[in-house]
Every structure is written in C-alpha cells, then in structure tokens.
Amino acid sequence: MTKSTRRKFIASASLLTLAPAIESLAMKKEKPVLVHHVFFWLKNPDSKEDLAKLIAGVKSLSKIETIRKIHVGVPASTEKRDVVDNSYSVSELMFFDDTAGQKIYQDHPIHQKFIADCSALWEKVVVYDTMSA
C-alpha cells in the first residue's frame, strides 16, 4: 500500500467511525426544561453581611431534589451597555424537568425557610420562568 493510499484509507476509516457519533448529536433532541431565573435587590446593597446571608440562603435551595442544576451569581463586571441591567444584588438560575418539579420547589420546606429567613433582606424580587421552545 502506498503512502497516499494508506492516508486515504486512514482518513476514510476515521470519518466512518465518527459518523454515528455526529449523527447522534445532530438527531439528539433535548428534553423540555423549565428555567426559573430570579433577581434580588437588597434593601441595603452596600451591606456585605446581607449579601453573604442572601447568597448562603439561595445556595441552601440546592438541596431541593427537583432542582436539576442551580447557578447563584452576582452582577458581572462586563461592559456597560444600555441593554445590560446590573442593578440587582444576587441572581439564582434553576433548571427543572417540568412544572411539577418547579411546584414541588415552590412548596418545599427548604424554600419556605429561605423566604422566612431572607425576605427581610430584599426590597425587590423579579422572576422569569421559561419553558424550552
């Protein structure tokens, strides 16, 4: 077998082994997901103690079994633009399998305790719930 033929054979064989993986990725449909994104504005935005307490409270929600993934964040130091609102103090981004899982989260004792313990810290809360399109 010449070098050129061997190269063509190896390239063809590589593509053949990748084809099923590429096809499965292209054909794979994502399960519907409910995304729950909450923004909190602290009453005392300069209080490091209040910020730490709110972050700890939000992180405690991760123990709720229907939350598939959670991200807790604060405003990023990104470029200032008219379309960017970084006036909030803390955000939580949660992923659920469905509305039933999100309902369990809403009624869960850990969530109710979070509200009881932390609601005095915030002056405003905005929630965005979305479902996969």
Q: Describe it for me?
A:
By secondary structure, the protein is an alpha+beta fold. The protein has four helices and four strands. The chain has helices at residues 3-27, 48-60, 99-107, 109-118; strands at 34-42, 69-73, 90-96, 122-131. Strands 2-3-1-4 form a four-stranded antiparallel β-sheet. Helix 2 (48-60) runs antiparallel to helix 4. It is extended and about 75 Å long.
Give a short synopsis of this structure.
The chain has 133 residues and is α+β, with helices and mostly antiparallel strands.
Topology overview:
Blueprint: H1 3-27, E1 34-42, H2 48-60, E2 69-73, E3 90-96, H3 99-107, H4 109-118, E4 122-131
Antiparallel strand pairs: 1-3, 1-4, 2-3
Helix pairs in contact: 2-4
- Averaging pLDDT over every residue, what do you get? 88
What characteristic shape results from the CA principal axes? extended
What is the count of DSSP helices, taking H or I runs of 4+ residues? Answer: 4
Strand content: 15-25%
Spatial strand sequence of the major β-sheet = 2-3-1-4
Taking Cα atoms only, what radius of gyration do you get, to the nearest Å? 23 Å
Q: Please report the total strand number as a whole number.
A: 4
User: How does the helix and strand content classify structurally?
Assistant: alpha+beta
Distance between the first and last residues' Cα: 52 Å
What string, H for helix and E for strand, traces the elements in order?
Answer: HEHEEHHE
* Percentage of residues in helical conformation: 40-55%
Largest sheet at a glance? 4 strands, antiparallel
Low-confidence stretches: none
